[in-house]
Write a structure and sequence with these properties.
Layout (H helix, E strand, L loop, with lengths): L15 E3 L2 E3 L16 E3 L5 E3 H5 L5 E2 L4 E2 L2 E2 L7 E4 L6 E3 L9 E2 L1 H13 L19 E3 L4 E3 L1 H9 L8 E3 H7 L18 E3 L4 E3 L1 H5 L7 E3 H112 L2 H20 L10 H6 L2 E11 L2 E8 L9 E3 L5 E3 L3 E7 L15 E7 L6 E2 L1 E5 L4 E7 L4 E9 L2 E2 L5 E6 L9 E2 L2 H4 L33 E2 L14 H7 L11
Parallel strand pairs: 20-28
Antiparallel strand pairs: 1-2, 3-4, 3-10, 5-8, 6-7, 8-9, 11-12, 11-13, 14-15, 14-16, 17-18, 19-21, 21-25, 22-23, 22-26, 24-25, 26-27, 26-28, 29-30
Helix pairs in contact: 6-7
């Protein structure tokens, strides 16, 4: 919580009202009590308040009592820290309390001038007449207001005859009060000297008594030196700092204004976006409802047509069946034989007609395909992206397609893949998944041997199918959607043997490829004279063309023959030869 939270904010206007009179000089008014200063004291933060107001400030902290160098602190009491009512700074009061603070004589001057300007009722400070006589003059040395009688008496007395007395009218016209600062210990004595060791202005009596052993000099001789230190701090360091602070404050204010403008602009953009987005969503909603109504009319017409066709087929079949049954049950042999021809032709036509409804075309499945998919992207409306589509497509088994060579060709021990694409009656791919897809791979020769398959729904109308056949052979692939075969199912899958890479080299003969080694032998059964076991050009068993040294195959891009074939060709084994 802020340390200012329990204080009233200072008034922002320089004018204040006091006892019905308008005050034009705020420097004469205490910011705590809102009245003219009474014994104004200067806090260490250079803010001035009445001595009574300072004494009433609540302590912010209180240190433990103790001793410091130079004597007892506050007579044994701890140091009191208060918060300045203006700047909120933590300031320490002297051990003597507010009385130990420096008096703000400029504030006293402002109080007197403010009293003159506001034409306040100034009574004489010396006479005891009742009612008080109006003051007409002021002694600048004694700082008292004097009526005409007391002013004459003040000038006749030997002790005050040399004092400067000015009329209140002169002081008001001057606009600034220049009065001497008197000693608090010796009233009537002006502070004309400055004690260097004590760093205090003193009067003549103080210099002769309390400061008689100290070096004291006229205030006019030291004021320039001490004033220069103040001027140096103000002009050399604080004034540039003040300028930088003012510039920084201005920049912050500009940033605050820019921030406010930017926030308001962004807020308007957000509101406009929300209104536009709401309009786009509403337009999309209306578009979906219109589309739903179009689908409704289309499907209703389709069902109406389908119903009419089925009713007509029902009447035709029912009429044929009734006639045939009545003919067989009631007709004589001659009547049956005479009507046989026309009856068989009609019944045959009815049996072969396209009236027989397919289970996939029945109405319940067709209607259940209409659904709303909330999270599916639906493009843009007025440049706003929207989601939510109405799905109304149904799978047409005759239009489904299968992609990938893994449907017809596979390798022993290798993973095979193909993709089922579900399509509607128009041949367009379905945009969603969820169909019940069943794929079975069965050996055609061994009906009890099946291959495990995996079906993955891609949620876009396509389904990835993978399998691994551990043995070569011919298989049947059943692909069913909703327990019905797709067009072309079952398919024929040929699984070939696992590919064997050649262990040797493709060369012209073992004699050349081995560098003339007699022990070199390759996959072909050829030999050559001179003790060579391998084949050579134009010798018995040489194929007459380049061949593989491991199996004797003459096809360069081919599969290596299995070990059983190699054993039949070359029972002694084979040696890999080096290709030259």
């Amino acid at each position: 919580m802020s340390r200012r939270s329990d204080r009233k904010e200072n008034t922002s206007t320089p004018e204040r009202e006091l006892n019905g009179a308008l005050l034009v000089n705020p420097r004469a008014v205490c910011n705590v009590c809102k009245r003219l200063y009474r014994d104004p004291k200067i806090l260490p933060c250079l803010h001035t308040f009445c001595s009574d107001c300072v004494a009433q400030l609540e302590p912010f902290s209180l240190s433990s009592p103790g001793r410091e160098e130079g004597g007892d602190v506050g007579g044994g009491s701890g140091t009191v820290t208060v918060l300045c009512p203006d700047c909120d700074s933590e300031v320490d009061l002297p051990p003597a309390g507010p009385a130990g603070l420096s008096t703000d004589h400029l504030a006293l001057d402002d109080v007197f001038l403010e009293t003159l300007v506001t034409d306040g009722p100034l009574g004489c400070d010396l006479c005891g007449e009742e009612p008080l006589r109006a003051a007409e003059s002021r002694c600048e040395v004694c700082c008292v207001n004097l009526c005409e009688f007391c002013c004459q008496a003040h000038r006749r007395q030997k002790r005050t005859s040399s004092h400067s007395v000015q009329t209140l009218k002169e002081l008001k016209s001057r606009g600034r009060l220049c009065r001497p600062v008197l000693c608090s210990l010796h009233p009537g004595q002006e502070l004309r000297l400055f004690c260097q060791p004590c760093d205090l202005p003193v009067c003549l009596e103080c210099a002769a008594t309390l400061h008689r052993d100290h070096r004291c000099g006229p205030t006019r001789d030291v004021v320039d030196r001490h004033g220069d230190r103040i001027r140096e701090l103000v002009s050399g360091r604080l004034r540039p700092l003040l300028d930088r602070l003012e510039e920084s404050v201005q920049k912050v204010e500009v940033s605050q204004e820019a921030l406010q403008v930017r926030v308001e602009t962004t807020a308007n953009e957000v509101r406009a976006f929300a209104r536009g987005y709401a309009s786009a969503v509403e337009a999309h909603c209306l578009s979906l409802l219109r589309r739903l109504e179009e689908i409704h009319v289309q499907r209703r017409n389709q069902l109406h047509l389908q119903k009419a066709q089925l009713k007509q087929a029902l009447l035709d079949v029912q009429g044929g069946v009734n006639f045939a049954e009545r003919l067989l049950s009631c007709g004589s042999d001659a009547e049956i034989l005479s009507a046989k021809g026309v009856t068989l032709r009609r019944l045959t036509n009815l049996a072969e007609s396209s009236y027989d409804p397919h289970p996939a075309t029945v109405a319940p499945d067709d209607c259940s395909s209409i659904c709303f998919i909330a999270r599916e992207p639906a493009g843009e409306v007025d440049a706003y992206p929207v989601v939510g589509v109405i799905n109304y497509k149904t799978v047409d088994l005759s239009k489904c397609t299968i992609e990938g060579e893994g449907l017809h060709l596979g390798r022993e021990g290798q993973r095979g893949h193909f993709t089922l694409v579900c399509r509607d009656a128009a041949g367009e791919q379905m945009t969603r998944g969820g169909e019940h897809v069943l794929v079975s791979v069965v050996d055609k020769e061994k009906k009890n041997r099946t291959v495990e398959t995996t079906v993955v729904d891609n949620n876009d109308g396509s389904y990835g199918v993978s399998y691994t056949a551990e043995e070569p052979g011919t298989f049947s692939v059943w692909v069913c959607v909703r327990a019905q075969h797709v067009k072309g199912s079952p398919f024929i899958l040929n699984v070939k043997r696992k590919t064997r890479r050649h262990a040797g080299t493709f060369h012209c003969c073992s004699f050349c490829s081995s560098g003339g080694s007699k022990e070199a032998r390759c996959g072909c059964p050829g030999t050559m004279p001179g003790g060579f076991k391998g084949c050579g050009h134009s010798h018995k068993g040489h194929p007459g063309k380049p061949h593989w040294s491991c199996c004797g195959s003459t096809v360069e891009q081919s599969e290596c023959l299995p070990p059983s074939v190699l054993a039949a060709v070359s029972p002694r084994g084979h040696l890999r030869t080096v290709e030259l």
